[in-house]
Amino acid sequence: MTRFNTVSPEEATGRTKELFAAIESKLGVVPNMMRTMANSTALLEGYLNLSGALATGSINAKTGELIAITVAENNHCDYCLSAHHFIGANLLKIDDTALSAARKARSTDPKTETILQFAKTLITKNGMVSDADVDIVKQAGVTEAQIGEIVGHVALNILTNYFNNTAKTEIDFPVYQVAAV
Questions:
Q1: How confident is the model over 111-166, as pLDDT tens digits?
Q2: What angle do CA 52, 172, 105 make, to 5 degrees?
Q3: Is 137 exposed, middle or buried (0-12, 13-18, 19+ CB in 10 A)?
Q4: In 11-109, which ranges are continuous DSSP H helix?
Q5: CA 45 – CA 110 distance, rounded (Å)
Q6: CB half-sphere exposure, 152, CA atoms < 13 A
Q7: How would DSSP label each residue in 141-155?
Q8: Whole-prediction pTM value?
Q9: CA 3 to chain CA mean position, Å
Q10: CA-based end-to-end distance of the chain
Q11: To 10 degrees, what angle do helices 131-139 and 110-124 make?
């Protein structure tokens, strides 16, 4: 059972209505997470702004989705795991093997795996990574700008994971559940 109400696109007014129009023009629908975030226009707009900014960075969309899956699995967020699995498979055409591997911070591509492992390290160490942790990523050919963007992707996904876990947002994608602990 959800804990927060959703705002429907038909009921939205002002800035929220504008944000919903932009979301709907891009995705064709306004997903439940965004409808729920819309209880605070500031939260919804902040999420969209950071997401939009990261989309223009040097971490490509496929890697961003794989990071999102790694983070969702580690933060036990079924909503985000389901959403990012759907986006990865259907919009970005990432194969199921790669999507499943990302849940364990794994990849057949060594550089991508290093990025996913670093994302997982950020979570497990609450951001308090060591020089060695950063050196491993640099040695894989990841630039300092990209390392910063990885931190940004992790932070964005922690925001959505914590929000959806708090709100118990109704999943409006095919459901994937995090592995039992």
A1: 999 999 999 999 999 999 999 999 999 999 999 999 999 999 999 999 999 999 99
A2: 60
A3: buried
A4: 14-27, 32-37, 41-55, 61-74, 78-86, 96-102
A5: 35
A6: 21
A7: T--HHHHHHHHHHHH
A8: 0.95
A9: 21
A10: 22
A11: 160
